[in-house]
Amino acid sequence: MLSRPGFSVLRTWQGKGGRPGVFLHDEANPPKDGFKWDSKERVEAEGQLALGIVVTHDCEIENPDSRHHRLVGLVRPLDRLDVRDQEIIVQNRHYGRLYLPAWAEVGLPESYLDLRRITTFRRDALPDDHRIASMTDFGRQALQDAVIRYLTEMYRGQDFGQ
Predict the structure, then answer these.
(1) Using CA atoms, how far apart are residues 139 and 25, in angstroms rounded to an integer?
(2) CATH number of 52-154, picked from 2.30.30.110, 3.40.50.12280, 3.60.21.10, 3.30.70.270
């Protein structure tokens, strides 16, 4: 049971006379018995449309138990950061961000992959006709190196009770 959602939930039910009833639950208006979820309940949520890079490894996509989901990292435009932060990313000195040079042929401005913003998508939420490119071997190796560096640097110096 989720006691406090970080979003609004639009719930519908059959009201008197068969009319649909609708109520918007949020932190200010929670349901009386708390937030409980059916397995396929629809909820209202805010989101953003953005470019992303599939970071799921090729062999994982082929495995029967994981071929229905993809890990996707958020791509952000570099020019929205201040000049100092842009330089750090371009020089590969930020562990959580992978620099992506501009690619005019596909309309990609100078950007970065934000490794701190990786999420899971169902495969059918990523239609093939939305794919703009595939990575080269060099690109896959750069991505793999960046993910490993980010994850290992993130935990550097922490004691895991070993």
Answers:
(1) 44
(2) 2.30.30.110
The DSSP line for 92-114 is: T--TTEEEE--BGGGTBPSEEEE
Q: What's the token pair of residue 76?
A: 């952000």
Per residue in 124-152, pLDDT tens? 788 888 888 888 999 999 999 999 999 88
Tokens 């639009």 -> residue: 10
**Domain boundaries in the chain?**
8-46, 52-154
Q: How many CA atoms lie within 13 A of 48 on its CB side?
A: 7
pTM score above 0.70: no
Short-list 40, 51, 103, 42, CA closest to 75: 51
Torsion of CA 142, 144, 145, 147, to 10 degrees: 120
